[in-house]
Write a structure and sequence with these properties.
- By secondary structure, the chain is α/β, with parallel strands linked by helices.
- The radius of gyration is 16 Å and the shape is globular.
- Strand 2, helix 2 and strand 3 form a beta-alpha-beta unit.
- Strands 1-6-5-4-2-3 form a six-stranded parallel sheet, sandwiched between helices.
- The N terminus is likely disordered.
- It contains seven helices and six strands.
Length: about 230
């Protein structure tokens, strides 16, 4: 499933703007709900059938941010009550990381969290997800996963992905939902990972509005235990 529209790609430089302004605008576009930090894996919460590993966008607060993550988790909780754990990726989320194709240390952390989640809860299914630079981390992490860990991924959801259109490691394309909003100059051309400095546009802050269809996609790929 893809939500892709054609707009000029400007740059990853405005993946986010100053955090207070960003969170205000995110609320205006349907985001900004819920906690900006989630640590169900590292806190060793009781196992659940589905575990979301989520990477926030550049300069967002906490480890899941506010634009896409919390609205997505809320929608998942509605679609799959009491079945979802969420773990954010702790990483710098800096401009340097965005321009270098996604923070390298954060990408390794994301891959490591997949392994930790499966080790702690062998029957859980994994959802890899991210927003903006977090999408770069999803791509980078997926490339390093073993075949066994890749097989544990039930779905991938990326919001405003600078690498929109590229494969996500060896995850089948049928399990990948790339959501690229109208007016988002970061993901609209896809596959280039950024360009000269500029603005992502208002579309890049609109992903709270896509939480429900994103959760529906995850539910459609989730296989409940027998």
């Amino acid at each position: 499933m893809r939500y892709t529209f054609s707009f000029p790609l400007l740059a990853l430089a405005a993946t986010t703007i100053a955090a207070p302004t960003q969170e205000l605008e995110a609320r205006q576009f349907g985001g900004g709900s819920g906690s900006s930090t989630r640590n169900d894996v590292t806190n060793k919460a009781p196992c659940k059938p589905l575990t979301v590993i989520f990477a926030r966008g550049t300069s967002e607060a906490g480890n899941v941010g506010s634009v896409a993550g919390p609205p997505f988790f809320k929608a998942l909780d509605s679609a799959l009550p009491n079945q979802v754990n969420v773990q954010g990726v702790d990483y710098a989320a800096s401009w340097n990381g965005a321009f270098s194709g996604g923070d390298a240390a954060g990408s390794r952390t994301m891959a490591s969290l997949v392994g930790q989640a499966v080790s702690q809860c062998p029957s859980t299914q994994i959802v890899l997800s991210g927003y903006s630079q977090g999408g770069q981390l999803v791509h980078n992490a997926a490339k390093t996963l073993s075949a066994d860990l890749t097989a544990k991924i039930s779905s991938v959801v990326i919001f405003g992905d600078p690498y929109n259109g590229q494969a996500v490691g060896s995850v089948p394309a049928s399990k990948v939902d790339e959501i690229c909003a109208p007016g988002d100059n970061i993901c609209s051309r896809g596959g280039t990972g950024g360009g000269s400095p500029g603005s992502g546009g208002s579309g890049h802050l609109s992903y709270g509005s896509y939480a429900t269809p994103a959760a529906a996609f995850v539910k459609s790929k989730f296989t409940p235990a027998a």
